[in-house]
Amino acid sequence: QSVLTQPPSASGTPGQRVSISCSGSTSNIGSNTVNWYQQLPGTAPKLLMFANNQRPSGVPDRFSGSKSGTSASLAISGLQSEDEADYYCAAWDDSLHGYVFGAGTKVTVL
Amino acid sequence: QVHLVQSGAEVKKPGASVRVSCEASGNTLATYYVHWVRQAPGQGLEWMGSINPSGSSSRSAQRFQGRVAMTRDTSRRTVYMELSSLRSEDTAVYYCARERVEYSSSFILDTWGQGTLVTVSS
Description:
The structure holds 2 protein chains of 2 kinds. Chain A is an all-beta fold. Chain A is built from no helices and 9 strands. Chain A has strands at about 10, 20-25, 35-40, 45-50, 65-70, 70-75, 85-95, 100, 105-110. In chain A, the strands form 2 sheets. In chain A, strands 1, 3, 4, 7, 8 and 9 form a 6-stranded mixed beta sheet that branches. A 3-stranded antiparallel beta sheet of chain A has the order 2-6-5, with no helix packed on it. The relative contact order of chain A is 0.33. Chain B contains no helices and 11 strands. Chain B has strands at about 5, 10, 20-25, 35-40, 45-50, 60, 70-75, 80-85, 90-100, 110, 115-120. The radius of gyration of chain B is 13 Å and the shape is globular. Chain B starts with a strand and ends with a strand. The interface between A and B is medium-sized, with 25 and 20 residues.
């Protein structure tokens, strides 16, 4: 059971907007920033978003992040086939004294 | 572009230990925190711990405390993770990952190794 709760799956057709939620608590998302990682099939994770809503260089602006209270979300607008991947949210947890990941959301492009 | 190169796949028996290495091109690990994250087959990501740039301090997730050791050889630009008392549930791909900013422990992991599969089987 992950400390951060994500939906197991999300899907959309090309061009649509998909949103992934990440629900936590006051000890993690509520008091620390959230990062998002994208993992394409068979590859290592890649940093997709950091500090809630900052995109690393090279990440398309189709990806956006937000945080409110103890929840965060990642949105993908203009969904493309290459966006098919697993997406993980992560944050430091003050109670567990550890970095915690959500269980991941598999995004499928229909 | 920094690349982290990890050691090859390992097969271990229950109760044994495994050591995985992580090396970067150039002197691009010496001033960064390095983290270890694992992923069991078909499962999600799990943070194991991290080590500071000098190698003088490390911290680990509660469930691995006493069983994981992280060290670094700055002269060789290599970081190591050793996991002891292996059990079948430790079968996973183990990743090293570097922080985004030098001397920062912000948990923004922007460079990842290719992963090392560790299989624990009798």
